[in-house]
Design a protein that fits this description.
Layout: H1 3-25, E1 36-38, H2 40-44, H3 49-56, E2 65-66, H4 69-77, E3 83-87, H5 92-95, E4 98-100, E5 113-118, H6 119-124, H7 127-133, H8 141-152, H9 160-170, E6 187-191, H10 196-212, E7 216-220, H11 226-235, E8 240-244, H12 245-252, H13 261-276, E9 278-280, E10 290-295, H14 296-302, H15 307-316
Parallel strand pairs: 1-2, 1-3, 6-7
Antiparallel strand pairs: 3-10, 4-10, 5-8, 5-9
Helix pairs in contact: 8-9, 9-10, 12-13
């Protein structure tokens, strides 16, 4: 190829690249598109993203961004995403002025938290039943939200261990100057999933056992998602971990949603005992249901109060 021909080819190539850049620069950006950010488990769960878009008959214009749970709230507050899969008892919803949307089709089941314990552990250490059931009804939605915020806040955050200890003292379940038991009666392993609330609940379980029995507690907190903890308790690697009724019902048992909280609890309690030889003890008291959550100002600007409103907006903006 002659020198002149080479120059012509180079010029032509540069023209193609320049044309592409110009076209890119003038591409129309859909500023009305809603960008979602969900954690990995919500994206895959039947009571998460897949089931939600089917129940409300919509989908986002682009696939949701997979995000770490700990980053979602700040990302939503800062406008990096517009909607996240928030947890109803997460204190960052209020701290960042976010707005949970009303689940007007009652897609999400109740998620009342309770200790899930191996039956053979309770048989070997029967004192655990009364100790753990002393937590029944002690934690309201507001209390759990406040404890979560104390760990997650940017200014002077506390450790989950400190928050758990303060709660147990405030509830009169242990004394402020009380010493743990001797640890001579054996070892119990308490597990937990990979987010703040589970860390706090795991510490509450561990400490109430340590201070009210002579059992030693091994902590395996922040293990991962639901199925990692569930497989751990089935295998005997864990003696207990905090679980949620809706998660047990839909995600583990693969059953349809039961909206009545007591009926859902009774169903999972009976099924887990029969199928897995696991026992649900009495619930802590709060309902940490999933929520689709937006920036309050953004939701008000778009007139979005419910998930149906969000679905209507997305369909009108070019989503499915």
């Amino acid at each position: 190829m002659s020198q002149k021909a080479k120059v012509i080819v180079i010029i032509a190539a540069l023209a193609v690249v320049l044309g592409a850049l110009v076209a890119l620069n003038y591409t129309v950006v859909d500023h009305d598109a809603i960008v979602a950010g969900f954690n990995a488990e919500f994206i895959e769960r039947p009571d998460g993203y897949r089931g939600l878009v089917a129940a409300y008959d919509f989908d986002f214009a682009s696939p949701p961004r997979q995000m770490d749970t700990g980053l979602m709230y700040r990302a939503c507050a800062d406008g990096a995403v517009d909607v996240i899969c928030g947890f109803a008892t997460d204190g960052r919803i209020e701290a960042y002025d976010l707005q949970p949307l009303v689940d007007d089709r009652l897609f999400f089941p109740p998620y009342y938290a309770a200790p899930l314990v191996r039956s053979d552990t309770l048989e070997e250490h029967p004192e655990l039943r009364d100790v753990l059931n002393s937590l029944s009804g002690r934690i309201s939605d507001e209390t759990m939200g406040q404890m979560n915020l104390e760990v997650d806040r940017d200014i002077q955050p506390l450790t989950a261990s400190a928050v758990a200890h303060n709660f147990l003292v405030a509830e009169g379940l242990i004394d402020a100057d009380q010493e743990p038991g001797s640890g001579s009666a054996g070892t119990i392993t308490v597990g937990g999933k990979d987010f703040t609330e589970q860390d706090i609940l795991g510490e509450i379980l561990a400490q109430i056992i340590e201070y009210n029995t002579d059992l030693q507690v091994r902590r395996r907190l922040y293990l991962g998602g639901t199925m990692i903890c569930f497989q751990g308790i089935i295998a005997g690697d864990l003696d207990m971990y905090p679980e949620y009724t809706g998660t047990g019902l839909v995600n583990i048992l693969d059953e349809e949603v039961i909206s009545d909280p007591e009926e859902a609890y009774d169903f999972v309690k009976e099924a887990f005992a029969e199928v897995y030889d696991l026992e649900w003890l009495e619930p802590f008291g709060f309902n940490n249901t999933y929520t689709l959550t937006m920036r309050r100002e953004h939701a008000e600007e778009l007139g979005i109060e419910t998930i149906s409103d969000l679905a209507d907006h997305i369909r009108g903006a070019g989503g499915r």
